[in-house]
Design goal:
Layout lengths: L1 H33 L22 H16 L10 H17 L3 E24 L2 E5 L5 E3 L6 E2 L4 E5 L7 H5 L7 E5 L5 H10 L4 E5 L24 E4 L1 H10 L3 E21 L4 E11 L9 H24 L9 E8 L7 H10 L14 E6 L11 E3 L13 H17 L5 E3 L8 H5 L3 E3 L1 E2 L5 E2 L1 H11 L9 E2 L16 H19 L4 H5 L27
Parallel strand pairs: 5-6, 6-7, 7-8, 10-11, 10-12, 12-15, 13-14
Antiparallel strand pairs: 1-2, 1-9, 3-8, 4-9, 5-9, 9-11, 13-16, 17-18
Family: Belongs to the peptidase M28 family. M28B subfamily.
GO molecular function: metalloexopeptidase activity
GO biological process, one term: proteolysis
């Protein structure tokens, strides 16, 4: 009996052991399965997609190198009326058409009297002595001025003071003579308008010799569009020589000019979003004749392209997690900015025409303009366009929205713990015609030829670290409008940050429920009157023109 009881006890112990082992294994399996694994797929939701997070310096530099290569194949320039400019437009277009579903269109316009044919000539005769002067060394053409073909010497008449008032011109008899006017006080286009008004045959504006860089003739000085008289900019020494020789001075001017036809703007629209509430994002695609134009404005060209490529991709491939905006976005690349904002001015001019009835092509269909020009300066600042600096003639309705865009950029830089500076909205880039037509505008840049002060250097070093504030008493871009504006002339850190800021601004406003109310709380005038093209640009706000 005892032996039988022993067997039963052993059997029970065995069953208990087996059961305990099985239970332990099951429990361990449950615990193990609940432990995190490096190979397991997380069940946590992904953070929401952001346009800002799509921006990276690698992509920016890849496209920027393409623009450098284009310039290198075109004698080192991407200025209008060159192969470099045309190839730049082709590159932008091909990238958009091959990689997005954006609706791409080109808009063409003509730049009058831009192409110089042959060798311009200027001869002077003082007290019977004839001198032949050298182009560029002694004189340059003032852009947009008309051709000249003097077959004989024409008397020279010095204009008193600096030719900025009617009284300066009425005190002498300048009709059918060549007027000699000193630089200063008013703009070159204003002097030219006086010259046309008083029926001169030609105009010579001479440098004033007041500083070391104000003796030689200046290249690419701009005149009014459709100027009807020939005009040269001459050196200080030649101007004084002609002035001292009066009234026994006469000159002969000869220059053959022709129009630059087929200068292009490119615009690319999202296929979704309300066409009557369009966000316009713009940058200029041309450079100056001297240099590859990589910071000015290859950086803006590529920054705008990267925004367009990434937004289109998000809309197409991630519609469930990145819904399209309620507003149409129009990305534009303006031509001939370097010649006086001509592409943007032409676009606004056309959108204001009363016979334009296509929905989405009227200026009333635009809500705002974001402008990106020079985004990668080597001695950068983060310059936010400041509503407080708009010209006094700016339409009232544009002010509130412009201020909100200013504050939107400031808030982003503050949140990113980045320094920022104020940048003038006075008149130096393609936002001008939009602002003049009553639209809110904004943007960021890294500075042009202006000088970084010691206090600004210290401000940036305090935030970014000692040694990272840049160089005091040096230009933001030491290669501004020069041959050295190549791909080596950029700051990658600043470039990426500025384009990310641009992405944030676009995304923020694109997600607002009522962007028009946000920009124009007091309403806006939509039946905009046609504005004269020459009034779209306030020349007085461009220091290069005085």
């Amino acid at each position: 009996m005892a032996e039988k009881s022993t067997y039963i006890l052993f059997a029970l112990l065995f069953l208990f052991t087996i059961t305990a082992t099985i239970l332990t294994a099951v429990l361990l399996g449950i615990v193990v399965n609940r432990l995190p694994s490096n190979n397991a797929t997380s069940l946590e939701p992904h953070p929401p997609l952001s346009l800002v997070n799509q921006i990276n310096i690698k992509d920016l530099l890849k496209h920027l190198q393409q623009l450098q290569d284009i310039a290198d194949r075109s004698n080192g320039t991407r200025a209008i009326a060159t192969a470099g400019f045309n190839e730049t437009l082709d590159y932008i277009t091909s990238q958009l058409e091959q990689n997005t579903n954006l609706i791409v269109q080109r808009q063409y316009f003509t730049v009058r009297n831009y192409i110089i044919r042959g060798n311009p000539q200027l001869q002077s005769q003082i007290n019977g002595v004839t001198l032949h002067h050298t182009y560029v060394t002694n004189f340059t053409q003032i852009l947009y001025s008309s051709r000249a073909d003097f077959d004989s010497f024409v008397p020279l008449v010095p204009i008193p003071n600096v030719g900025c008032q009617d009284s300066d011109w009425t005190s002498v008899s300048a009709e059918n003579a060549v007027a000699l006017v000193k630089r200063g006080d008013c703009t070159y286009p204003e002097k030219s308008l006086f010259a046309q008004k008083y029926r001169v045959k030609g105009l010579l504006i001479y440098n004033d010799g007041t500083a070391s860089d104000r003796f030689l003739p200046i290249q690419n000085v701009r005149n009014n569009l459709n100027t009807t008289i020939p005009a040269f900019f001459i050196s200080y020494s030649l101007g004084v020589q002609l002035l001292n020789g009066a009234p026994n001075s006469s000159v002969k001017m000869n220059i053959d000019v022709s129009d630059a036809d087929g200068i292009g703007n490119i615009c690319a629209d999202t296929p979704t979003g309300e066409k009557t509430q369009t966000i316009v994002v713009g940058s200029h695609s041309d450079g100056v004749p001297a240099g590859s134009g990589i910071n000015d404005n290859g950086s803006g060209t590529v920054g705008n392209l990267i925004l367009a490529l990434n937004l289109a991709r998000l809309f197409q491939t991630s519609s469930s997690s990145y819904p399209t905006y309620a507003y149409r976005v129009r990305f534009c690349w303006w031509g001939a900015e370097e010649l006086g904002l001509l592409g943007a001015r032409h676009h606004v001019d056309q959108a204001l025409l009363t016979n334009v009835t296509t929905v989405g092509e009227r200026l009333q269909d635009y809500l705002l303009n974001l402008n990106y020009d020079m985004l990668a300066g080597p001695n950068y600042r983060f310059g936010i366009h400041d509503r407080a600096t708009v010209p006094s003639t700016t339409p009232e309705q544009a002010l509130r929205g412009t201020e909100k865009i200013t504050n939107l950029f400031r808030q982003w830089f503050n949140e990113q713990k980045l320094p920022w500076s104020n940048s003038s909205l006075g008149g130096g880039s393609d936002y001008v015609p939009f602002l003049a037509a009553g639209l809110a505008v904004g943007g960021v840049n890294t500075g042009a030829g202006g000088i970084k002060s010691a206090s600004e250097r210290d401000q940036y070093a305090t935030v970014l670290g000692i040694g990272n504030g840049g160089l005091a008493n040096a230009a933001y871009d030491p290669c501004y409008h020069q041959q050295c504006d190549r791909i080596t002339n950029i700051n990658p850190f600043a470039y990426e940050k500025v384009v990310k800021a641009a992405a944030h601004a676009l995304e923020y406003m694109g997600r607002l429920n009522n962007l028009q109310q946000w920009l124009y709380p007091n309403g806006r005038q939509i039946d905009m009157p046609l504005i004269n093209r020459n009034q779209l640009y306030d020349f007085r706000n461009d220091p290069d023109l005085i």
